[in-house]
Structures are given as structure tokens and as C-alpha cells.
Amino acid sequence: MQLFYTDVFVLPLPAGHRFPMEKYSRLREALLAGGDFAPGDFRVPEAATDEQLALAHDPDYIARVGRGELDDKAQKAIGFPWSEGMVERSRRSAGATLAACRAALADGVAANLAGGTHHAFRDRGEGFCVFNDAAVAARAMQAEGRVRRVLVVDCDVHQGNGTASILAGDDSIFTFSMHGARNYPFAKESSDLDIELPDGCGDAAYLQRLADGLDTAFDLARPDLAIYLAGADPYRDDRLGRLALSFAGLAERDRQVFAQCRLRGVPVAVAMAGGYARDIDDTVHIHATTIRLARRMLDRGSPPYTAGNE
What are the φ/ψ torsions at residue 212 (nearest 5 degrees)? Predict the structure, then answer.
């Protein structure tokens, strides 16, 4: 299983910044220390090009990001101060999901150890998201002739508003977002399928709604490829989440997604998305569990992965 990671993901931030940037390097360390993966399993992704980014973003926005010409309001909405490092990180994060999609189509499953930047819109960023890696990757796989239909399964605690907006009206890419009803973003967009959950929703109710949602999404999407945003922030001790899932509940969430992919013979590219637990070790544990469960999907033997599973 190929994992895409670069130290560029760990962007230096001002002291006291609330984004847990360290989680990416600690996730890589945890996967290596656990013995599930060897150094050769980790690949350094290339940065997404302007042409690839323009499949989902306005070229003028891409250029202004690159030159550092966003105004203070636009930069504040993103949540990171501008730097050349921020631009490179954002390009590499999108490039890593692109690479994970290509690897998943070859091997069945692959993962970007960052990504899930689902709050980025066509012409603006917000919520720690500059470029929308899932939208870029889905469109790039189509442009490269690798797939016709894509399903985005977004299980971050926050709605994938940017993804829904960019892909609105595109019948070839199905967007499914399962998120807290009263959480950020407070002005929601319309995904192809939205499941909104009440504050304090726990394992049993969440997993039942997910099972129903996955059945519907796969039936309607008929995908050749799935992109799974495996947010750690539905966790009950997440600072920015309002749900109440346990470690076991989150692991079962991942099993359900991977089981559907195996059952239907659909390759899956995984991105980490959000995770803001009070103890960063909890976030790393949740993300690492997702990756280990994805690896088991291969170890148990999966159906053939071929484009056009309709």
C-alpha cells in the first residue's frame, strides 16, 4: 500500500496557532513504529500543477495564492498566514491525493497522509483549506482518462462545503457528506447527499446513518473510484467537533467504508481531513487506525479493481 507524505506538510505556524500541524509527522512516525509499514511504503508526492488545480479552481485565484496577493480578509478566512511554504504545502497536499488516486486504481487502496481540504471553493479558501484536493483529484483522474465516475465520501465532522460547491451540477462526481448539523460551516452548501447529525451523536446512531448513506451513495454514484475523507474530528474529545464517537466507533466507520469498496470492487484513495483532539496522540491514533484498516482491505484480498464497475 502506497502512502504519500512529505515534511512539507508540516507548515511552521505562529506560536499558539490552533491547527495541530505536528500530527502529520507524528502519523508517519506512528505507522513506522507500529511495524505495519516500511520506509519504502512512503512516497514523496509531486506538487499539483497550475493546470491540474485549474480543473477545480479559478486560474486567477491560483495565481493570487501563488504570488501572495490575497487580501487580509481572504487570508484570514484560510486561517494560515501566507508564505511560500504555505503555497508549496497546499500544492503538495493536492498532489498527494492525485498520486493516491493513481495508486489506488493500480493497487486497490492508497492514502495521502494529509489532504481532505474540503472547505476550499473554486475562487477562495477557508477553514485551513487553500486548494480542494478531492475535487482536483477527481477531475484529474477523469481528464487523464482513468475513470468516468467518482464518489467522494466525506466523513469529516464539518460539511464539505467547498467540494459540494465546486462539483455542483456535475453528474459524474457524486458528493456524500456526513457531518454535524450545528457545526462549521454554519452556511451549508448542498452535496448530492448530506446527512446532518445532532450534537452528541454517538457510535450506534452514527454507524446506522452511515450504513444507510453508503448504500445510497454507492447505488447512485456507480463509481469507478472512491475518495474517502477520513476525518478524526467526529471523536468525542475533539476540540472543534460536536459529535461523540469513540475510538471503536471511528474504527467501525472506516471498516464500513472499506467494506463497501471491497464489496463493490471500487478502489479507494484515502485522505486524512480534520482532527483536533485535546490530546494530539488521540488524533494520531485515529488516523493511524484508518490507515491500518485500509491496509487490511488489501491483505484480506479484494475483488478486481477495474474502471467501469457499473
Answer: -65, -45
